[in-house]
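Milestone 3.1: sequence recovery, worked example.
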C-alpha cells in the first residue's frame, strides 16, 4: 500500500475546525481536495501532516497558527478614506470587500468600522491568529 510522500498526488476529504469547534470548511459535500505533496499548494502544516498517510487512513491534527495563516498583524488593519469606495457602495461592517491596489495586486479586506468619512479595513487572512484542527481521510494516492 502506498503512502503519501513528497511528489505524491493525494486526493482527500477534510473538515477544518477552529479551537472552539466551529467548522470553517469541509470537502464532504464536494469533490475531494487533490494536490501534490511538497508543491506548496496547501499550508505547510497541512502538507506535513499528510506525509506518511495511506489510502483509506483517517487522521486528526491541529496546526498552530504560525504553520497555518500566521498571527494577526496589527499593521494589516488600515484606515482609508470613504472616497476610495464607489459613491453608491454601501459600507457594511463585517463585509468582505475585494479590490486592486495601486500596484495592480488584488486584495480582500474585512470592513471593521466606518466613521467621519473613514473606513477601517482588516487585510489579515480571515484565519490569521487561529490554530486549525483538521480531520482528513485519504481517498487516493498516485
Amino acid at each position: 500500500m502506498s503512502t503519501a510522500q513528497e511528489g505524491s498526488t493525494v486526493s482527500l476529504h477534510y473538515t477544518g475546525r477552529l479551537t472552539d469547534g466551529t467548522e470553517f470548511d469541509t470537502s464532504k459535500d464536494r469533490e475531494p481536495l487533490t494536490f501534490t505533496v511538497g508543491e506548496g499548494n496547501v499550508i505547510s502544516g497541512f502538507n506535513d501532516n499528510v506525509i506518511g498517510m495511506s489510502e483509506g487512513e483517517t487522521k486528526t491534527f491541529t496546526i498552530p497558527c504560525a504553520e497555518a495563516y500566521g498571527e494577526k498583524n496589527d499593521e494589516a488593519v488600515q484606515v482609508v478614506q470613504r472616497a476610495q469606495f464607489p459613491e453608491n457602495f454601501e459600507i457594511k461592517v463585517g463585509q468582505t470587500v475585494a479590490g486592486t491596489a495601486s500596484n495592480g495586486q488584488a486584495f480582500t479586506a474585512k470592513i471593521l468600522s466606518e466613521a467621519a468619512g473613514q473606513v477601517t479595513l482588516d487585510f489579515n487572512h480571515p484565519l490569521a491568529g487561529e490554530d486549525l484542527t483538521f480531520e482528513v481521510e485519504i481517498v487516493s494516492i498516485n
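Helices lie at 44-50. The mean pLDDT is 96.
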